[in-house]
Design goal:
Helix content: 55-70%
Strand content: under 5%
Distance between the termini: 23 Å
Number of helices: 7
Structural class: mainly alpha
Radius of gyration: 13 Å
Number of domains: 1
Number of strands: 0
Mean pLDDT: 77
Low-confidence stretches: 92-99, 106-112
Shape: globular
Length: 112
């Protein structure tokens, strides 16, 4: 089982390199309020990004969380994930892979 890392969100938001595991930990922190403010939209965003990074366990957490969210909240989380992928601050010269991932996220139907 993945441990909740109180520093995961801070490191990612400050522009640190984020692995799929880091993104998943950030989702766990935001979905539980342990180490980050409780926010389902942010948690869903991080789980979406972790899934794109290949973290299978994040699919389960995202699905569980989506069951507690409105369609509007899920849409906001998906938009936030696309914005994060597209942001120059996180691209650091690698905009093409992030742009491709943002495009994939736009086309993926995420079950609520």
């Amino acid at each position: 089982m993945t441990q909740i890392d109180a520093d995961a969100v801070a490191v990612i938001e400050l522009g640190g390199e984020a692995t799929g595991a880091d993104l998943h930990k950030a989702g766990l922190a935001c979905s539980t309020g342990q180490g980050a403010p409780l926010c389902y939209i942010e948690a869903h965003k991080w789980f979406n990004l972790a899934v794109l990074a290949g973290v299978e366990e994040a699919k389960h957490h995202r699905r569980e969380l989506a069951a507690l969210m409105s369609a509007e909240q899920i849409a906001a989380a998906q938009a936030a994930a696309r914005a994060w992928l597209a942001s120059a601050a996180h691209g650091r010269g690698r905009g093409a892979p992030r742009a491709e991932a943002a495009d994939r996220l736009t086309r993926i139907e995420i079950a609520a």
